[in-house]
Automatic annotation (TrEMBL):
Molecular function, one GO term: oxidoreductase activity
Lineage summary: Bacteria, Bacillati, Bacillota, Clostridia, Lachnospirales
List of residues binding substrate: 121
Protein name: Alcohol dehydrogenase (NADP+)
A Pfam short name: Aldo_ket_red
Active site (UniProt): 59
InterPro entries per the UniProt record, alphabetical: AKR (IPR020471), NAD(P)_OxRdtase_dom_sf (IPR036812), NADP_OxRdtase_dom (IPR023210)
Site entry: Lowers pKa of active site Tyr: 88
Domain NADP-dependent oxidoreductase, chain residue ranges per copy: 23-305
């Protein structure tokens, strides 16, 4: 197994001066890979040199991954302080007092006494069961209301005060939602974890985050070809087949996946690619340490943007909302179709 010295992995400085590795590993098995397969990959990935892991209670594998964290620390492969471990509070735990309950369960499952980062997974309390289908909807789903969201965020701030989490952040937020949220924060979000890949580059959000000292974490950075059916639609871009990426990959003798990863790290957002295949996750990590893309290649990728959101989130729609577009505030104002508080 190829190993990368963790000191070679670029780091990104957060607003408070702390650092995070510029690439992580995703741990959502896409309803396809078992907790055992994912946690085995995490174990070997740590041996390979990965230090940052993107997890969530909703991925249903924190107990197995916790066994791995405990094992690598006990075996002396890595010290706790050298890992950057992120989890997320799921949508059914936004209520009063629930966030502390949720993080306590995650810490117990992961066998840790603190998390490096804890994010609000989605900005509304619209849970769905693991393995949800295309037409599954939660009858209690609701749109985003800042009053409700800040009740959740205040609980996140208290976790930071308590030392249970080092950094707090959000995920799947839009600019109109952040515009309402940020003036009300006592502790600013360190991260917004969102979909970013060459077919959905989100320049406006990227620049917005940077201007506010928020680091964008890119989920599905390779275009998530294996995503669950509930998040696919006819006509979606197959990112790995984009001719611009295939051509640049050929120039470097690498798979288009590695082009996506180099592009992400050179641009400055943090990719968290997922794979349980050792050759893939090893080469994903190695890609950020060698043979960078040229300025010209970076510009070709910039021009290749398709503005094509792949993870549409239909399963989170509330009664009254008709299209996945309602979730993403495409008219630059918060969409609450059919609802008032
Ligand atoms: N915050 C959120 O709401 C949210 C939403 C979605 C995802 N995420 C996070 O983002 C992570 C990654 O997202 P994702 O799994 O949707 O998408 P992704 O990382 O874009 O794509 C993963 C797929 O890419 C393939 N792959 C990986 N490395 C490769 C390589 N070197 N060469 C060729 N193919 C390669 C793998 O296919 P095979 O399986 O065929 O090997 C893998 O299943 C998740 O694990 C999760 O941590 C967060």
């Amino acid at each position: 197994m190829k190993t990368i010295n963790a000191d070679q992995i670029p780091q990104i400085k957060l607003a408070n001066g702390d650092f995070i590795p510029a690439i992580g590993m995703g741990t959502f098995g896409n309803d396809k890979y078992t907790p055992e397969e994912v946690s085995t990959a995490v174990y070997n990935a740590i041996k390979t040199g990965y230090r940052f892991f993107d997890g969530a209670a909703a991925y249903g594998n924190e107990q197995d991954i916790g066994n791995v964290y405990s094992r690598v620390i006990n075996e002396g492969i890595v010290k706790r302080k050298d890992l950057y471990i992120l989890s997320k509070v799921w949508n059914d735990m936004h209520g009063k007092g629930d966030v502390l309950v949720a993080v306590s369960k995650t810490l117990k499952d992961l066998q840790l006494d603190y998390l490096d980062a804890y994010l609000v997974h989605w900005p509304f309390p619209n849970g769905h069961a693991q393995g949800a289908g295309v037409n599954d909807r939660n009858p209690n789903a609701r749109p985003f209301f800042i009053e409700e969201f800040m009740e959740t965020w205040k609980q996140m701030e208290r976790l930071a005060d308590m030392g249970l989490v080092r950094h707090i952040g959000v995920s799947n937020m839009t600019i109109p939602k952040l515009d309402e949220m940020l003036p009300l924060c006592r502790i600013m979000p360190a991260f917004n974890e969102i979909e970013i890949h060459p077919a959905f580059q989100q320049w406006e959000m990227f620049e917005y985050c940077r201007s506010k000292g928020i680091v964008p974490i890119a989920y599905s950075p390779l275009g998530s070809a294996e995503r669950p059916k509930r998040d696919t639609e006819a006509g979606d871009t197959a990112v790995m087949e984009m001719p611009e990426l295939v051509k640049i990959g050929k120039n470097h003798g690498i798979h288009p996946a590695l082009v996506c990863i180099k592009w992400a790290v050179q641009r400055g957002h943090i990719p968290v690619p997922f794979s349980v295949k050792q050759t893939e996750y090893c080469s994903n990590l190695a890609a950020v340490t060698e043979d960078p893309l040229t300025d010209e290649e970076m510009e070709i990728i910039r021009q290749a943007d398709r503005n094509d959101r792949l993870i549409k989130g239909k399963v989170f729609l509330w009664p009254g909302a008709e299209s996945w577009k309602n979730i993403w505030d495409l008219n630059n104002e918060i969409d609450r179709t059919g609802w008032t508080l």
